[in-house]
Design brief:
Helices cover about 45% and strands about 15% of the residues. With about 270 residues, the chain is of the alpha+beta class.
Length: about 270
């Protein structure tokens, strides 16, 4: 009898410990990114947000217009749902379902998002008048899809994402994440430079800053392009905080999006890692 009571008490104690642990543990958030521009709310998953941000950065680095970014995002929405997939129709792969057999590159090259996005923009730049074409028409000139009208269904969301990620809609792009561990500021700087090209930066332990120069409007757009790019890559890079102008994004409180702060700068994007 005594042994039975010990067993019962042990089970009760274990149950209390488990319940306490579950109660104390923070529930995992759903993870996603969203661009809110005007009446449009474009919500994507973290991978989609990461690659859309990279499309915006590479377009800026190449001196291409925000419309080029819209076209690229709309195309990737239709071709792969903005996921870097290793399968598709026949030998189609990657973000844009580019085919090695049609001269887009090797499988390894196409599966590298930096390469595939750059190749897409090179092909788009050869389309005369693409900036004034319907987005569906411009995308079709590059892709030669069997369903050219399908690109149009993604136009509104793609415009919102492009406007935010190119920095023309300040504090309009955010991601809700569950912080997953420590990042490296050196890796963050390398990642930003790989996407945007060589830009001025400075590092101090687990903090980095990207000072900006030029006209106020240019500083604002470029600053928000970098800040939004960092948010889109915060989960994989282990970023803790990002500040610019009067706004701050914090990984722990990422469900709140961008919040007002007194510690940001009008011409410096600041970032810290976990």
């Amino acid at each position: 009898m005594r042994l039975r009571w010990f067993v019962v008490l042990g089970l009760v104690a274990a149950g209390i410990l488990v319940a306490t642990g579950l109660r104390d543990r923070e529930p995992l958030r759903s993870e996603f990114c969203v661009a809110k521009v005007g009446d449009v709310r474009a919500q994507v998953d973290l991978e989609q947000g990461q690659w859309a941000a990279l499309m915006a950065a590479i377009a800026q680095n190449r001196g291409m217009s925000p419309r080029a970014t819209t076209i690229a995002i709309a195309t990737a929405f239709q071709e792969s749902k903005i996921h870097n997939i290793d399968y598709g129709d026949r030998d189609s792969i990657g973000l844009f379902q580019q085919r090695p057999s049609q001269g887009w590159g090797t499988v390894a090259q196409i599966m590298d998002p930096h390469y595939s996005i750059t190749r897409f923009y090179k092909a788009l730049a050869k389309v005369k008048g693409y900036e004034t074409m319907e987005i569906t028409q411009a995308a079709q000139k590059v892709q030669r899809s069997g369903f050219p009208g399908a690109y149009a269904q993604h136009e509104a969301d793609s415009r919102a994402l492009a406007s935010a990620l190119r920095g023309y809609s300040p504090a309009a792009f955010t991601c809700q994440i569950n912080p997953k561990g420590s990042g490296s500021v050196a890796v963050v700087i390398d990642d930003v430079e790989k996407a945007f090209g060589k830009i001025e930066s400075a590092q101090d332990r687990d903090r980095a800053r990207f000072p900006l120069t030029g006209k106020p409007a240019d500083i604002e757009a470029r600053g928000w392009a970098i800040a939004h790019y960092l948010v889109g890559n915060a989960s994989q890079l282990g970023i803790e905080t990002i500040t610019f102008q009067t706004k701050q994004w914090n990984a722990e409180d990422s469900d709140q999006g961008w919040t007002t702060t007194d510690t940001a700068d009008p011409d410096i994007v600041r970032v810290s890692t976990n």
